[in-house]
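Figure caption, in words: inputs first, then the predicted bound structure.
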Amino acid sequence: MADEKEPIGVIGVGWVGLVTAACFAELGHEVWARDIVPAKVESLARGEVPIHEPGLPELVAQNAERLHFTTDMAEVLEHTRLLFVCVDTPPTYSGDADLSRVESVLDELGDSSEHALVMKSTVPVGTGRSIQRRRPGTGYVSNPEFLKEGNAVADFMRPDRVVVGADDGSSEYADRVAALYAPLAAPVVTTDVASAEMIKLASNAFLATKISFINEIANVSEELGADVQEVAYGMGLDARIGPKFLQAGIGYGGSCFPKDVQALKQLAGNTGYHFQLLTAVIEVNELQKRRTIGKLQKHLGSLEGKQVALLGVAFKPDTDDIREATSLVLSGRLQGEGASVRVYDPVAARNGTSMLGGARICDSALEAIDGADAVVLVTEWPEFGELDWIGEIKARMRVPLVVDGRNFLDRERLVEAGFTYEGIGR
Ligand code: UDX
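Bound structure (uridine-5'-diphosphate-xylopyranose present):
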């Protein structure tokens, strides 16, 4: 019966908050989701989903009756006791996390001891402990999210694990939070708050390390004549290594990896520990984003006056998110070298208008490559694989040069058709 299910409060209806709200509603809970931006709440209440996330609009529509979007915190407090905090914790100039939105939530709650906080937002290790010191006698649970953009609904519904961190005094709430996930039949890691916070940061830092590692193997393979695709396949079959996150490319981006790796490095630094490995992971990634310029220069010489097409603006396919996307760095560097840049992305290009500098934003891949001296595949959107490379694309380019930043295209076919092909690490 629906009324046996714990009602859920969600504070902050960004990407994480909306996925959390919609998925708990799908699991049969009444959800009160609160955001401070009236326009966002109004459009959600009309069933309009403001972000590109596969499956999410359908979930919001199917569960409209159980989803209550509001700007009014009092409404959430009246109906719910577990408050999932899903507000933004963006990086500050120092690389520390900006916790001002978390602070605002705490201010609004005052000293109400009836409501337990369940922290989904990624926060520095130690945040939970400090909040608990300030709110004694109140429930606090760390329940970090591990959602991938573009796959978030599936990640929520079929998680590899659920992490529930609670300290002495909050075990009752930890049990209640763990029970919410019981229908998902995932392993539940029950631990203390600081360890839960660390699991989140360490997981993302490890995945970023894996990417920077394979990118360095790729760069060395280019010099030594090995093919990183073959190398990654051979490595990934070792069960201790595993095949995932071994795809060499032009660097990781997005709202999580760059921020979380920096945050963990910074946290360590604050304690006086120099996290050397993460320093290298960050630097490798920054250089990786820029290596494409050298690949273009190798074939075109000076890029002054050359026309370069960037296919893909989003930091990865199936999202319109451009935060920390390699496209932004490439667009700026190419224009710095005097090239004229055209970009196309199926959903994300317009989000980048102000950050792409003077790049021309095109309505189709064909418009972007028309007359180009080179094309760079930045994001592996499936539709880029289906373009008529051999026919129309080649005919429209001034010089048939492709830098495949994701080793995504059919290299043999392109080379056979007369393209100059530069991949990553092959
Ligand atoms: C990531 C984590 O996966 C998720 O658990 C966490 O909660 C948030 O951060 P997300 O940022 O959505 O999710 O993207 P993800 O799919 O992990 O990819 C991140 C970046 O790494 C992308 O730019 C992607 O292109 C790049 N990447 C990924 C590689 O370059 N090679 C790989 O093998 C995998």
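The chain has a mean pLDDT of 95.
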